[in-house]
Specification:
The complex is a heterodimer of chains A (about 80) and B (about 160).
Chain A lengths: L12 H6 L34 H4 L5 E4 L5 E4 L1
Chain B lengths: L4 E7 L2 E7 L5 H8 L18 E4 L2 E4 L12 E3 L12 H8 L9 H14 L5 H8 L9 H16 L1
Parallel strand pairs in B: 1-5
Antiparallel strand pairs in B: 1-2, 3-4, 3-5
The chains are: A little secondary structure (about 80), B alpha+beta (about 160).
């Protein structure tokens, strides 16, 4: 019996329909810090400094440096 | 950041008590505090509807609600639709009529459609089309989503 010309049921649909599929965002790492990448709304702007003292003052805020392009605050 | 608050609500029939910051969205509470990751977050500002759940039988965007607002409510998510191995008629219809492609928007569309059909089992096609337009599918499978919900409506009326 040929499958050509026939509708074939997709195998991946059941997990997608029942909410049991797993995506990268579903991975839970205990005590993971949350980070948001904020980019400049200015095209071709030059970043000369960051004013993050106020953000760092919040409870649970951590500062992480990962090179000059990626400095900021994690909570 | 404020102190955490206790929230008690029923999720898919199970009573749950979680302790969350007042700023915690219902979507994050479901995904991270209840471990129910079937509710997906697309835009996180109420445009796409991927995070739609039923709150006391009404479809709501869980990214636009705080978890504390669900105190005492009955919440239904995609995880509660099927009964064991038996899919809900809407889930089955989506499968049978190719109502999903990548499947990311599917939980939101399913919960929206459950809310619509439970409220109005005989909804006419133009009104259904209008109601379904509140959610977005970036695979643009809208015709088959409409076809699926119409088929499920017919099945549920039997």
């Amino acid at each position: 019996m040929s499958l050509i010309g026939r509708s074939v049921k997709r195998l991946e649909d059941r997990p997608l329909l029942t909410g049991s599929s797993r995506l990268a965002a579903d991975i839970a790492v205990p005590d993971a810090l949350c980070m948001r990448v904020v980019r400049s709304p200015v095209a071709f702007g030059r970043l000369t400094g960051l004013r993050i003292a106020e953000a760092l003052a919040h409870r649970g805020a951590y500062r992480r440096r990962c090179g000059s392009m990626h400095r900021g605050v994690c909570v | 950041m404020s102190d955490k608050q206790d929230v008690t609500f029923a999720v898919n029939g199970d009573e749950r008590m979680i302790r969350v910051e007042p700023r915690r969205s219902l979507a994050d509470a479901l995904r991270e505090d209840c471990g129910l990751t079937g509710t997906h977050l697309g835009c996180e500002h109420g445009v796409c509807g991927a995070c739609t759940v039923l709150l006391d039988d009404k479809p709501v965007r869980s990214c636009l609600m705080f978890a504390v607002q669900a105190e005492g409510a009955r919440v239904r998510t995609v995880e509660g639709l099927a009964s064991g191995d038996k899919l809900h008629p809407l889930q089955q219809a989506f499968w049978d009529h190719h109502g999903l492609q990548c499947g990311f928007c599917t939980p939101g569309f399913l919960m929206l459609a459950v809310g619509i059909l439970e409220h109005d089992p005989d909804i006419a096609e133009p009104e259904l089309r209008e109601a379904l337009s509140s959610n977005l599918c970036r695979c643009t499978g809208y015709q088959n989503i409409l076809k699926s919900v119409l088929a499920a409506a017919a099945e549920m009326r039997k």
